[in-house]
Design a protein that fits this description.
mainly alpha; Serine Threonine Protein Phosphatase 5, Tetratricopeptide repeat; globular
């Protein structure tokens, strides 16, 4: 009995002790567990310190405590967005708009995240809501939201709305992405940029250049650009239609009518040219012609309010008032047209999976006897190792039919086709490679090399440049070949400075040495053709010019000036040789000698703005703005599309006291070369003198940002005093033959 009581006592004591331990642990846990206020502070500190993961963790814990904390949900969503964790950001941003339905920026961020997760219908709805509610104080986020909404409007066939949105966001300056979007709108191609077949890149880019001029409201240059575009792409749907509408806006109705009639032949199933023709015929007082076109439009699109409206106007002009009134009533009762993606146009522009792979023999009828994927991959590797190219290609094609996601096999197939000089098959396989891996620079480079071989030079330039930007792998010889081809195409595109900068580091011994030197000479002499097309009279001159160009890129002036003198003695009247010599002399501040060479260049090349640009630059360096002014004016007259000419004219006007003209020219230069620190610096001075302090401060901020970037580039590339021949499009910040193919590295 005593033993039992003692046991009970021990149990009670142990229970009490355990209870005390548990209570102490609970009290300790209460002390350690952070409060909402602690988490708010730590999350803020982590966010401000750039510790994204820590901030996200603390914001998540904080909103678990206070689920109505809108600021916490906002930062949780936007931090995830900044870290490209779009799916994770969506729930947090949905909570923000639930707590504050009038928060326009939150709707924008939500729509952007949904775009990235390919939920395009929901994304468009939410981005539109964000636009309606207001986009907040961040202009960059606002432009990003409008850009993506424009992409979705275009994808949905709402081309006019998409164009207006892009024009409002990027009217003054159109970055490359905006130009691509504008090009798709102009072509009425309802696809996203990432869906475009690479073989259409050159067309879309060219259309984007024209569309950006149209968005800017530059009527004369827009019409000229349309003529150049249509000379190259005369049968592309909707280009004549777009040109016609631009001509009609410029009150050139006869020319507009001709373009719409051409479009009618190319797009006979579209009501758009007929609607335009009807309107133009009415303006030309030809109501019967207007009626015929309007009736055709209604026949093609019976549910189109626009078609019924032009039919009503045509009937009204023919004094058929009752019929006209009936058509107007129909147009008013019809709902807005439901947009339908034109299958013909989608197939024209979008990369089609079904066309990526070449046709191969069908699989065996008996699946049990069909080789497995592993067996096929082993057979392909064995055939490749044995040098049996045709057999390896057949096996790779068969394996990829069953396993299209096999990236390594597709890459090997592309390289086999390229090595066998079967460039169309190589292109087909490479399109699939870049569709699956758009960041794979080597694939873009080989695609560009293949396109070069079939003389698709416009696309080759785009894709070789993309490969250069993303980084190319492979042997030294193959990378040099890609850069050489790119340099050749840059010359052909009159981007001479960029070509010289790309080619100069490749000069020296090697299998392509003579070709690279020749291409460098073409850059110096500003010859914009392919090397094989250079006039025979210049074929002995060009290599010598190439030697000079390589020395100039290395700033070896002591060696280069005697060579200039000797070459000019032999070829005194060759265009741009005096200009190149004058530019080199200017780089060493030998201004009198430089100006003498540039004056001689004017006699040889009187229609070029380049020597006038350099003479104006020298006069400003010597603090003689009155002397710079006439040269800068002449440079603008000869080269209206030269940003540097407008910049120098703006500077000259500013320094002689012509403030209004200075602002006009510097603003023009800023639109044409938004990445130039010098333009923003002098525009800030001009705004300050015009008593516009807010604009001046904006320009100072832009200058500081771009100047820091330029310093970073100079630290990477070295500060060379010779800056090339000053291409029109970029004057302020320098940019940076063999059958050998890149090694088949694994993508």
């Amino acid at each position: 009995m005593l033993h039992t009581r003692r046991s009970i006592f021990v149990v009670v004591i142990l229970t009490l002790l355990l209870s005390q331990v548990l209570c102490a642990a609970a009290r300790q846990q209460e002390i350690v567990r952070p409060t909402f206020e602690d988490l708010e502070k730590s999350a803020t500190a982590a966010r401000e310190a750039g510790k994204i993961d820590d901030a996200v963790r603390d914001y998540q814990r904080a909103v678990e405590i206070r689920s109505d904390w809108e600021e916490g949900w906002w930062y949780l969503g936007t931090l995830q967005y900044d870290a490209d964790r779009f799916a994770e950001a969506i729930p947090a941003l949905e909570k923000v708009v639930q707590l504050d339905p009038a928060n326009g920026p939150a709707w924008n961020f939500l729509g952007l995240c949904e775009f990235e997760t390919h939920d395009y219908e929901t994304s468009q709805h939410h981005l539109q809501k964000g636009q309606e509610l207001g986009t907040g104080d961040d202009p960059e986020v606002s432009r990003v939201a409008r850009y993506h909404l424009a992409l979705l409007l275009n994808r949905n066939g709402e081309f006019e709305k998409a164009f207006d949105m892009l024009a409002s966001a990027f009217g003054d300056e159109s970055p490359p992405q905006a130009k691509i979007a504008l090009g798709l709108v102009l072509l009425r191609a309802p696809v996203l940029p990432q869906e475009v077949d690479p073989s259409q890149d050159a067309l879309v880019q060219a259309a984007g250049e024209t569309a950006s001029l149209l968005a800017r409201g530059d009527s004369a240059r827009t019409l000229d650009s349309f003529r150049v575009l249509l000379a190259k792409y005369p049968n592309v749907p909707y280009l004549h239609y777009a040109f016609g509408t631009a001509l009609a806006s410029a009150a050139r109705d006869d020319e507009a009518l001709l373009q719409q009639q051409k479009e009618l032949k190319i797009s006979p199933q579209s009501p758009l040219p007929s609607i335009e023709i009807s309107s133009l015929e009415l303006r030309s007082r030809n109501p019967r012609g207007a009626l015929r076109a309007a009736e055709m439009a209604v026949q093609l699109a019976p549910n189109s309010p626009a078609a019924h409206r032009v039919l009503a106007h045509s009937l009204q002009a023919l004094d058929q008032k009752e019929k006209a009134a009936a058509e107007l009533r129909v147009s008013e009762t019809l709902a807005p047209e439901k947009r339908v993606r034109d299958t013909r146009i989608v197939q024209m522009y979008a990369l089609q999976p079904a066309t990526v792979m070449p046709e191969v023999a069908p699989a065996a009828a008996n699946p049990a006897k069909s080789p497995s994927f592993d067996e096929l991959s082993r057979q392909a590797a064995a055939s490749l190792a044995a040098g049996n190219t045709e057999e390896a290609i057949r096996i790779y094609q068969q394996a990829l039919q069953a396993h299209p996601e096999w990236d390594e096999g597709r890459w090997n197939l592309a390289m086999l086709a390229y090595s066998a000089r079967n460039y169309p098959e190589a292109i087909a396989a490479l399109k699939a490679c870049v569709a699956r891996r758009p960041d794979y620079g080597t694939a873009w480079a080989v695609l560009g090399l293949s396109e070069f071989e079939i003389k698709d030079y416009s696309n080759a330039l785009i894709h070789l440049q993309r490969g250069q930007d993303l980084g190319m792998g492979g042997s030294t010889e193959s990378v040099q070949l890609a850069r050489y081809r790119l340099g050749v195409l840059l010359n052909r595109n009159a981007e001479f400075d960029r070509a010289a900068e790309l080619l100069a580091p490749e000069a020296g011994p090697g299998p392509l040495a003579e070709k690279i030197q020749f291409a460098l000479g073409m850059s110096l002499l500003r010859i914009s053709v392919l090397p094989d097309d250079v006039d025979s009279s210049k074929r002995s001159l060009v290599p010598s010019a190439g030697e000079i160009a390589a020395l100039l890129q290395d700033s070896k002036y002591d060696a280069v000036f005697p060579k200039f003198e000797a070459l000019l003695h032999q070829y005194p009247a060759v265009p741009f040789l005096h200009y190149a010599y004058g530019t080199a002399l200017e780089a060493l501040s030998q201004y009198d000698e430089a100006e003498s060479q540039l004056r001689q260049e004017i006699l040889i090349s009187p229609k070029s703005e380049l020597p006038y640009v350099r003479i104006a630059s020298i006069a400003l360096k010597m603090h003689r703005p009155a002397e710079a002014l006439p040269s800068a004016q002449r440079a603008v007259e000869l080269g209206a599309d030269s940003a540097e000419a407008h910049y120098l004219l703006g500077r000259s006007c500013l320094e002689v006291g012509q403030r209004e003209k200075a602002l006009q020219e510097l603003e023009t230069a800023s639109k044409m070369a938004p990445g130039s620190p010098e333009v923003h610096f002098n525009l800030a001075k001009a705004y300050a003198k015009a008593n516009l302090p807010e604009k001046a401060e904006q320009e100072r901020a832009a200058f500081a940002r771009l100047n820091a970037l330029a310093e970073l580039q100079r630290s990477h590339h070295g500060n060379q005093s010779y800056s090339g021949s000053h291409d029109k499009t970029d004057f302020s910040i320098p940019r940076a033959e063999s059958a050998t193919v890149p090694a088949p590295e694994k993508p």
